[in-house]
Design a protein that fits this description.
The chain is an alpha/beta fold. 41% of the residues lie in helices and 16% in strands. Helix 4 (89-96) links the parallel strand 3 (78-82) and strand 4 (101-104). The protein is globular.
């Protein structure tokens, strides 16, 4: 990372901090409802509360025109947009012109100018917002300049990055790696190496195996009897000598290696790579593994309880069992629908297009399609469509990007041509388009996508499954 670019970003963050510090009136923070946005909101909440500011936080799915218009009618002396806004500058200009606005985001910026805008975005200074810093990370940089007490929130910057899948080969890079180092020094995160399964530190082993949905392991994921039979077949212990349930973190290194090899053999046909299952694991001070925690935060947003996610981030509530129970039930229903209807989806040489209509919630279409890509759809590129308020929610993902395609720009271009709006990152993006424009959108975006499974290096080599942990 270029130190000069970092200094430029810190300069932008300092300007935003000055605007926030000097504001004596009412502040309204608008943030995204996913894990990164919830972490950004939590960082802002704790900081503004420390500064004794008068403020409110609103969570939104996206900053679409109708949502922006409704927000703009509310009272506020300063608007702060976190983890969104950079791709919607024209919308902000339309509805917030003349208002004081801070945008703290990491998505690709759109071309628009606004006189009263203070814009903090890594792309503006040559830093890649796709995998070097998240929305929560940008919010953290600003808040560190507002109060020295913000250092205790550094783990949320790392969690936000993990929530936006910013790890590269299991490791954080750029500014995210700096945040991780600080979080380790502060005792907020501990880095180990091992199997990256949901519930490593918090659930019985059988549940950790059963709950593995990313990656999805056929006949095991979501199947308690299948998970139990699998563990018994490979001789992996599930209880200790006293009869208590073992957690994944309780296994010996030899037993964990045995389990890792067995899981990779079982998952090979679904296209799962060793790196999907094995690598660095990041234990939070709350005893959650970081991927498990981001899954919980995303679930909070998708079942419309982002405030509960923010409370989890700040340690105001401890258990997420009820949230995850409701979330899993919904996911199971949606995956079953995809499995039953998979032959009716539009398939091209480049992607699979899942037009779900009202059968999948617009909050859950991205997650459902992402989980289904390897196990059910067997696709490298998938785009899901779900009916939403005043249109159709579009969510796309690329698993292996071997020809440099930019899904964010492709979605932005195609959605604009059908009268919608959207954008995102290179490998993950979303949009809102008019109802009935799905097939036209597909015609426009399909030529811009990479051919599927072009990179042979990403296919699992069974000779490599017995890897070192």
């Amino acid at each position: 990372m270029n130190p000069d670019n970092l200094n430029l970003l810190l300069g932008l963050a300092s300007k935003a901090a000055d605007v926030i510090r000097s504001e004596k009136g009412y502040i309204r923070v608008v943030t995204h409802f996913d894990a990164d946005g919830i972490c950004a909101g939590a960082i802002m909440y704790e900081t503004l509360n420390t500064l004794k500011k008068n403020f409110q936080i609103d969570f939104v799915k996206q900053l679409e025109r109708d949502i922006a218009e409704d927000l703009s009618k509310k009272d506020a002396d300063l608007w702060i947009f976190t983890d969104l806004g950079s791709g919607q500058l024209a919308t902000i200009k339309e509805f917030f012109s003349g208002k004081k606005v801070v945008v703290a985001d990491h998505h690709q910026p759109a071309d628009a100018e606004l006189e009263s805008l203070t814009h903090v975005n890594p792309h503006l200074v040559g830093i890649d917002g796709k995998d070097e810093i998240s929305g929560a990370g940008v919010a953290y940089l600003i808040c560190r300049m507002l109060t020295s007490k913000a250092w205790k929130l550094v783990d949320l910057a790392v969690i936000g990055a993990a929530g936006d899948v910013q790890k590269v080969n299991g490791n954080f890079k750029g500014i995210n790696s700096m945040f991780l180092n600080d979080a380790e020094l502060a005792g907020k995160i501990k880095v180990d190496k091992g199997l990256r399964l949901f519930g490593r530190y918090t659930r019985p082993l059988i549940k950790a195996v059963e709950y593995s949905t990313d990656p999805f392991i056929p006949n095991i994921s979501g199947n308690q009897s299948g998970a139990l039979q699998f563990l018994n077949n490979y001789g992996v212990p599930i209880k200790d000598k006293k009869g208590s349930w073992l957690r994944l973190c309780d296994l010996s290194k030899d037993d964990e290696k045995k389990l890792a090899s067995a899981l990779l053999i079982e998952a090979a046909n679904a296209g799962v790579k060793p790196g999907d299952l094995i690598g660095n694991v990041y234990k939070l001070s709350s005893n959650y593994e970081i991927r498990e925690f981001t899954t919980i935060l995303n679930a909070c947003g998708r079942i419309e309880k982002p405030v509960d996610g923010m409370k989890l981030c700040l340690g105001h509530i401890d258990s997420a069992d009820a949230i995850m129970g409701a979330y899993r039930k919904k996911i199971a229903i949606y995956l079953d629908w995809i499995k039953v209807n998979k032959d009716s989806f539009i398939k091209t040489d480049n992607a699979v297009y899942v037009i779900a209509g009202s059968n999948i919630s617009d909050n859950m279409i991205g997650t459902s399609v992402s989980i289904a890509m390897r196990s059910i759809l067997k696709a490298n590129v998938a785009v899901g469509f779900a009916n939403s308020d005043n249109g159709v929610k579009v969510s796309g993902r690329i698993l292996i990007n071997s020809n440099g395609a930019n899904l964010g720009k492709a979605v932005q271009q195609a959605s604009k041509e059908v009268g919608g709006e959207g954008g995102g990152h290179t490998n993950a993006a979303g949009a809102k388009i008019p109802l009935g424009s799905e097939k036209k959108f597909i015609e426009l975006i399909d030529p811009l996508l990479p051919k599927k499974w072009e990179n042979g290096k990403d296919i699992v080599d069974l000779n490599e499954v017995n890897v070192e942990l």
